[in-house]
Design goal:
- The structure holds two protein chains of two kinds.
- Chain A is mainly beta.
- Chain A has no helices and eleven strands.
- The mean pLDDT of chain A is 94.
- Chain B is mostly beta strands.
- Chain B contains no helices and eleven strands.
- Chain B starts with a strand and ends with a strand.
- In chain B, 33% of the residues are buried.
- The chains are: A mainly beta, B mainly beta.
- Chains A and B meet through β4, β5, β9 and β10 of A and β6 and β10 of B.
Chain lengths: 114, 110
């Protein structure tokens, strides 16, 4: 079956702009999580959506937001971009989230803010 | 608060030598622990989880609740094991939120 798909793969934006990233989960998966990966901080959890509701939220400013659609596809939005937002953004999809649930990751969207 | 610590950023071993990637965690409860691996130019993928107690690609990891550790071990390193390894924790009832360590780059030299 198809894996987790993230679009676009690469983005270059200017400071102050906003950006929207997209994630299509594996068919049947209703949970989508987002992570920011940087060389200095590693992988940091942004938020998780399950059945169109935000279920978990990490410690990121309100400029980072997301949503999930009825087909489980998810989008992440970052407003008023800062240089420090440059990172690889990973999306992971999972089944409901019970014990021993595996997270399947996409290849990521590389965001560069100039 | 939950935290995962991987003390080594880089671990270099020779082919055929034993490997141990360290992972310590802090969590007041019984978390689920995982090891994820990222090979060059590939996506992050699950290597193993403490619940299943299985061996994948010769790797094993035992959860030591007394020492709050979940070290990854392999008796004989292979060149194809060179990759970035991440230890991760999930809290029961916490949905699918994973807390990752900063990762250890394993380099297996010939």
């Amino acid at each position: 079956k198809a894996g987790v798909t993230q679009t676009p793969r690469y983005l270059i934006k200017t400071r102050g702009q906003q950006v929207t990233l997209s994630c299509s989960p594996i068919s049947g998966h209703r949970s989508v999580s987002w992570y920011q990966q940087t060389p200095g901080q590693g992988l940091q959890f942004l938020f998780e959506y399950f059945s169109e509701t935000q279920r978990n939220k990490g410690n990121f400013p309100g400029r980072f937001s997301g949503r999930q659609f009825s087909n489980s596809r998810s989008e992440m939005n970052v407003s008023t971009l800062e240089l420090g937002d440059s990172a690889l953004y990973l999306c992971a999809s999972s089944l409901e989230g019970g014990r021993d649930t595996e997270a399947f990751f996409g290849q990521g969207t590389r965001l560069t803010v100039v | 608060a939950q935290r995962v610590t991987q003390p080594e950023k880089l671990l270099s071993v020779f082919k055929g030598a034993p490997v141990e990637l360290k992972c310590n965690y802090s969590y007041s409860g019984s978390p689920e622990l995982f090891w994820y691996v990222q090979y060059s130019r590939q996506r992050l993928q699950l290597l193993l989880r403490h619940i299943s107690r299985e061996s994948i690609k010769g790797f094993t990891a035992d959860l030591n609740k007394g020492e709050t550790s979940f070290h990854l071990k392999k008796p004989f390193a292979q060149e194809e094991d060179s990759a970035m390894y991440y230890c991760a924790l999930r809290a029961p009832g916490g949905g699918n939120k994973l807390t990752f360590g900063t990762g250890t780059q394993l380099k297996v030299e010939l």
